[in-house]
């Protein structure tokens, strides 16, 4: 048969056309895979703003102990440490999104969301239960709260409000932005600074028996610095004279009424809510009802979200729509308080009694510490 160039070309052209299509398809597929990969990588940096973040904070969340014996009580608030309080944990927030849930994903997809300055702040107190309260609140779908402590109003104020705003998670129109930094309550400059940002800011203070709080504070410090002096020697300026050293921060923080006077110079009493650290243990749902009402939120976080763990002595969190095991706040919870001389404990109680009485009067609530 005679060779025909025309016939040959008729076979070559279709083959070349198919190859070109295949080549373009491969390029498009590669680009699509790359885009999906980038999107997934970006999503992994989005903080889990609800229950998924609870597990990450197992080592740094605060829950309070309710035992009456100070010498043998368990410290359930033992990880509000210096590293956490310096605000150096912002990189850790990236790891909170390993298990994005529906709320966090919808937040990512909602283009109407933006970063806002907080409308509510947990301002104190250290070793009172602020971490526990924050994690309880983060179960609420209408709350967006940053996990690490910004320390903006006491240590980073010179960086400006825009720096502060950038630390906040994105929130939609109906959601409340929050943060917590326990040292705000005792820092003199903070009330005026928060008032300058917004005079309508809602403020939450978690308080606890000041004697138990002081021992808890000392226990945490001793866990990092075992060679520090005894609790008894730090408590007194002069032990023989029984003069309490009010310059020691562990003692000073518990003088709640003195600090509250500064806040009331800028904010009306109705703009501050005082949460009982003891009741966060014994009745977390009841305290959460008060907090949600104060914030103007639906009572979404209720008794069905808590499971009391008798072995640990404090409530664990659960999602009622899941059948998974409840998550307890903190593997490291349960430090034993040192045995404190009963006479020193009594002297501290006597010292705090007038401050407590004044605090009860100012807040309109008897916390039953005396």
Summarize this entry quickly.
The protein has 370 residues and is an alpha/beta fold. 42% of the residues lie in helices and 13% in strands. The strands form five sheets. The protein has a five-stranded parallel β-sheet with strand order 4-6-3-7-10. It has a three-stranded antiparallel β-sheet with strand order 11-12-13.
Measured between the Cα atoms of the first and last residue, the distance is 114 Å
- By secondary-structure content and strand pairing, the structural class works out as alpha/beta
- Element string (H = helix, E = strand): HHEHHEEHEHHEEHEHHEEHHEHHEEEEH
User: For the largest beta sheet, what order do the strands appear in spatially?
Assistant: 4-6-3-7-10
Low-pLDDT stretches: 1-14, 40-103
* Largest sheet geometry: 5 strands, parallel
Describe this structure in words.
This protein has 370 residues and is an alpha/beta fold. It has 15 helices and 14 strands. The protein has helices at 5-43, 52-56, 82-85, 102-109, 130-137, 152-155, 161-167, 190-197, 210-224, 231-235, 249-252, 256-263, 277-282, 284-294, 342-363; strands at residues 74-75, 114-115, 120-124, 143-145, 170-171, 176-180, 202-207, 236-238, 243-244, 272-276, 306-309, 314-317, 327-328, 335-336. The strands form five sheets. The protein has a five-stranded parallel sheet. Strand 8 (236-238) and strand 9 (243-244) form a beta hairpin. Helix 12 (256-263) runs parallel beside helix 15 (342-363). The chain is elongated, with a radius of gyration of 27 Å. The N and C termini lie far apart (114 Å). Residues 1-14 and 40-103 have low confidence and may be disordered.
């Amino acid at each position: 048969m005679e060779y025909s160039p025309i016939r040959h070309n008729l076979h070559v052209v279709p083959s070349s056309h198919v190859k070109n299509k295949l080549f373009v398809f491969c390029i498009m597929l590669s680009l699509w895979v790359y885009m999906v990969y980038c999107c997934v990588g970006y999503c992994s940096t989005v903080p889990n703003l609800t229950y998924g973040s609870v597990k990450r904070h197992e080592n740094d969340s605060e829950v309070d102990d309710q035992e009456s014996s100070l010498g043998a009580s368990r410290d359930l608030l033992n990880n509000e440490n210096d590293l956490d309080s310096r605000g150096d944990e912002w990189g850790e927030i990236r790891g909170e999104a390993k298990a994005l849930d529906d709320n966090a994903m919808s937040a990512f997809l909602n283009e109407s969301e933006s970063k806002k300055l907080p409308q509510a702040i947990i301002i104190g107190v250290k070793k009172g239960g602020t971490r526990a309260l924050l994690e309880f609140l983060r179960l609420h779908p209408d709350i967006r709260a940053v996990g690490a402590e910004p320390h903006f109003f006491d240590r980073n104020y010179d960086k400006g409000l825009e720096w502060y705003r950038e630390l906040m998670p994105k929130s939609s129109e109906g959601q409340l932005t929050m943060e917590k930094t326990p040292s705000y309550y005792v820092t003199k400059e903070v009330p005026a600074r928060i008032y300058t940002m917004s005079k309508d800011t809602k403020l939450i203070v978690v308080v606890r028996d000041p004697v138990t709080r002081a021992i808890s504070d000392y226990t945490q410090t001793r866990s990092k610095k075992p060679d520090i002096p005894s609790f008894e020697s730090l408590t007194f300026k002069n032990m023989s004279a029984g003069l309490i050293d009010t310059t020691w921060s562990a003692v000073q923080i518990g003088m709640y009424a003195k600090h509250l006077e500064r806040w009331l110079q800028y904010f009306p009493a109705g703009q501050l809510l005082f949460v009982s650290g003891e009741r966060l243990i014994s009745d977390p749902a009841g305290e959460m009802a008060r907090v949600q009402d104060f914030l103007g939120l639906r009572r979404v976080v209720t008794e069905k979200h808590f499971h009391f763990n008798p072995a640990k002595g404090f409530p664990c969190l659960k999602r009622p729509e899941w059948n998974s095991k409840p998550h307890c706040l903190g593997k490291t919870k349960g430090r034993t308080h040192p045995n404190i001389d009963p006479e020193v404990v009594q002297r501290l109680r006597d010292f705090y009694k007038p401050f407590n009485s004044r605090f009860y009067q100012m807040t309109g609530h008897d916390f039953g510490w005396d």
